[in-house]
């Protein structure tokens, strides 16, 4: 991947997309081979990963922020911006166990993107939530790219992949089928 690039990964369920992202993020170890990373990574891999359902949204901002390596002071300085971006309003004081998956995605995305990571991993996060928040999240990703963030992007939405990605990898049963331009790979992927 190149700096500032949005690199998409396509494949059917079970192709190994999420496993690959977890290996890159350091959540899983590869059974063979190696991964070389150059930069800090903000992973948006599993909705609710690192969240505690008994804690409120605010408490989970601190918990998740600390897990991502943010200092308590930094979180305090940025909490209003995180809450505003998430659009959770009064629900931010409600325990997460009462959140929908879309609300959790909003909160996770808002926390992970409050800094300008060098590498952002996005796994199906933009598939959850309403159209307005998806559009807002896409704009945030595009602004991060303009700032030099590299994005590793997995989505079943071929339109999102076509719209956001510079290059695409087609993964099938853990094997790379092809890497290329979005339109070329999506056309071939659809005709399989």
From TrEMBL:
Question: Could you tell me which SUPFAM superfamilies the record lists for this protein?
Answer: P-loop containing nucleoside triphosphate hydrolases
Query: Which Pfam families does the UniProt record give?
Result: ABC_tran (PF00005)
Domain ABC transporter: where?
Answer: 1-192
Has UniProt tagged this entry with the keyword Signal?
A: no
Q: Name one GO molecular function term.
A: ATP binding
User: What domain of life?
Assistant: Bacteria
Keyword terms: ATP-binding, Nucleotide-binding, Translocase, Transport
The record's similarity note reads: Belongs to the ABC transporter superfamily.
Q: What is this protein called?
A: Teichoic acid ABC transporter ATP-binding protein
Q: State the organism of origin.
A: Paenibacillus cisolokensis
Q: What is the lineage of its organism?
A: Bacteria, Bacillati, Bacillota, Bacilli, Bacillales
